[in-house]
Specification:
- The chain is of the alpha/beta class.
- It folds into two domains: about 210 residues, 3-Layer(aba) Sandwich (Rossmann fold); about 180 residues, Rossmann fold.
- About 45% of the residues lie in helices and about 15% in strands.
- The chain has 15 helices and 13 strands.
- Strands 3-4-2-1-5-6-7-8 form an eight-stranded mixed β-sheet, sandwiched between helices.
- The radius of gyration is 22 Å and the shape is globular.
């Protein structure tokens, strides 16, 4: 199958869930014998216009980042121009769109209208924007939000089908954009179960990372933005350390809230119990999962799926999470007791301490829970399973449109 994938994010800098999904889908499809080209934004001026990454032919366009209007209009013009050039060089069977901005440029081309098109909604673009720090100018903020919503709705309306990673996001796309539910397919996210796996020796992993042995270690890795609920988790640590002496919370990730969160730690005298790692590299991320005793997902808004949740579970690391977004779809089938009653600090602390008191004196019970986490992922959330379902959807789209694979 000849595929053209269109996105706003890269596949060789995995700094978010959308990049991870895009990388796993495109490289695995290429490994299964499909001809995959990726049209995406040139985030770094040093990146070449065209390159091959793990079998995927990547083509970059460079937007004008002088100001917001220049960025938008140059994206529409240059993404379309690159699309027209690529299509003139080699026809495609199907277009798979991720995110609305690059998609908007491609969909402006008349050439796109005769090709079956699929849109993947990771999370609603305008809602993501609305949950960030407020814009200094509320009128501009409202315009930015409206523009993102309009571009995303256009991409959804022009695509023959839509995919989401969770039923939560399927219902959200239906409610906010009016897309018929029968046009939306849920293909859950996945995990590389060979890369994320339990540690044979947790103490040695901690030593390698410079983490203390013998402490009850909580771990979370998130973008440091308001919707992640990290302030609630830090406030919860005041109660956690009383119920689980020596508890240590390790927070990975970067974002504009770093200073505010560090101030919160200082204010509540939690310096000995909360540690910030900053950005965690691809090589070290599996080790942090292996080193921890419990992964905490304190999200307060818009958890479209939660790749970190299945990465942790694949590592044999139990996860406790809020009943937000797609998290219940992952955890309820494993153990409903892993879900917080609410996102407030008291509820977070209560469940964390309960799990500590259950597992600390009964290591064999913790080990069985660890094995259950791993089996749950192997049965439901592998990238192989994800890509096979995506490939079947591609075939159905081609069949419905009366087209056949080229080559």
């Amino acid at each position: 199958m000849k595929l053209l994938v269109v996105a706003d994010v890269p596949i060789h800098r995995l700094d978010g869930g959308a990049s991870r999904v895009l990388h796993e889908e495109t490289t695995r499809l290429a490994a299964r014998g499909h001809a995959v080209r990726l049209l995406t934004r040139q985030v770094d001026p040093a990146w070449p216009e065209a390159e091959c990454i793990d079998g995927v032919r990547v083509h970059h366009y460079r937007p004008d980042q002088t100001h917001a209007a220049a960025f938008l209009f140059s994206t529409l013009i240059r993404a379309r121009a690159l699309f027209d050039r690529l299509l003139a060089e080699e026809p495609v069977d199907l277009i798979h769109l991720h995110q609305p901005l690059s998609a908007a440029g491609v969909l402006r081309s008349p050439r796109s209208r005769s090709i079956p098109t699929l849109y993947t909604c990771h999370s609603l673009a305008f809602e993501e924007y609305d949950t960030r720090e407020p814009d200094a100018n509320p009128i501009l903020a409202a315009l930015h939000s409206w523009g993102r919503k309009r571009l995303e709705r256009n991409a959804i309306e022009q695509s023959r089908r839509v995919t989401t990673l969770s039923e939560f996001m399927r219902q959200r796309v239906h409610a906010r954009h009016g897309a018929p539910l029968e046009r939306i397919d849920v293909i859950p996210g996945g995990v590389n179960e060979m890369r994320f796996r339990p540690a044979p020796d947790k103490p040695s992993v901690r030593a390698k990372l410079g983490l203390p042995a013998g402490r009850f270690m909580l771990f979370t890795v998130r973008n440091l933005v308001p919707r992640m609920g990290l302030d609630n988790l830090i406030l919860a640590m005041r109660r956690v350390v009383r119920g689980a002496p020596g508890a240590l919370l390790v927070i990975g990730g970067t974002g504009r809230l770093r200073g505010r969160l560090e101030s919160l730690v200082e204010e509540h005298h939690l310096n000995e119990h909360v540690r910030f790692t900053g950005f965690i590299s691809e090589d070290e991320l599996p080790l942090y999962y292996q080193a921890a005793d419990l992964f905490v997902l304190p999200t307060v808004q818009l958890e479209g799926f939660g790749l970190v949740t299945v990465e942790a579970l694949a590592s044999g690391l139990p996860v406790v999470g809020t009943r937000i977004g797609g998290t219940p779809e992952i955890l309820e089938a494993l153990d409903p007791g892993l879900l917080f009653a609410s996102p407030d600090p008291a509820a977070l602390a209560g469940l964390i301490v309960d799990k500590y008191r259950l597992w600390a004196p009964q290591p064999e019970q913790y080990a069985e829970m660890s094995r259950r986490c791993r089996r749950h992922v192997e049965a439901h959330f592998t990238w192989q399973r994800h890509v096979e379902r995506l490939e079947s959807l591609y075939d159905r789209l081609l069949s419905e449109s009366g087209r056949h694979r080229r080559g």
